[in-house]
Specification:
The longest helix has 18 residues, at 43-60. 38% of the residues lie in helices and 17% in strands. Helix 1 (19-28) crosses helix 8 (192-206). It contains 8 helices and 8 strands. The structure holds the ligand Cc1ncc(COP(=O)(O)OP(=O)(O)O)c(N)n1, ligand 3NM and magnesium ion.
Length: 213
Amino acid sequence: MGYDLYVITDAGIGRGRSHAEQAGLAVEGGADVVQLRDKALAPRDLLAAARAVRAVTRAAGALFIVNDHLEVALSAGADGVHLGQGDLPVAAARAVVPSDFILGVSVGNAAEAVLAVESGADYVALSPTFSTGSKADAGPGRGLDTLRAVRAAVPVPLLAIGGIGPANVGEVVRAGADGVAVISAVVGQEDAAGAARRMKALIVAAKGGEVPC
Ligand SMILES: Cc1ncc(COP(=O)(O)OP(=O)(O)O)c(N)n1
Ligand SMILES: Cc1nc(C(=O)O)sc1CCOP(=O)(O)O
Ligand SMILES: [Mg+2]
């Protein structure tokens, strides 16, 4: 299964839709992966949201990743967890999860990417690739030269995240990203399914597939 279009749900940006509704629109538009990300929910409420997103993604055949919370990911039957540099160390997670459980890791440069992969990461995300208004503490964009350096450094799937939309997704893919992770470009749109469909078509086209109409 691929990582072309990776959509992250967001209670604030998601236009009043529940996480499961956002996930449903994302997979309707062709999202390959959905991540549940909510910094405010109590663990039991996050687990309830995760179970609802699990049902939607399972029905669509999409991967389901939970942000930050390994215990919620495991309890909800998610496919994996996404860990940042300040979260649970990837090696500690790898030691306790099933072998097919996906561990994604945020990285800011090639050295962090190499360390993440040596520690057990299944994919890495260059965070943030461009500046973003969707995460207050994301910091400045790392840029496409850093993306190329990470691409050259590690063999695992590489995502770009932060500030990516229809206008720049092509150059991101051509610089070496296997996929893009987005919030505002999909769940922030009124027609979120249509926005996902367009992003997916642009990614496929940039990889040399069918040109979108
Ligand atoms: C796909 C993906 N990439 C990066 C992040 C950011 O993770 P992190 O640095 O831990 O920040 P928070 O999202 O937890 O605020 C992500 N969630 N997903
Ligand atoms: C959740 C997240 N993590 C980031 C990082 O750089 O680690 S940027 C980000 C938000 C991405 O939102 P948008 O697609 O609207 O820019
Ligand atoms: Mg995190």
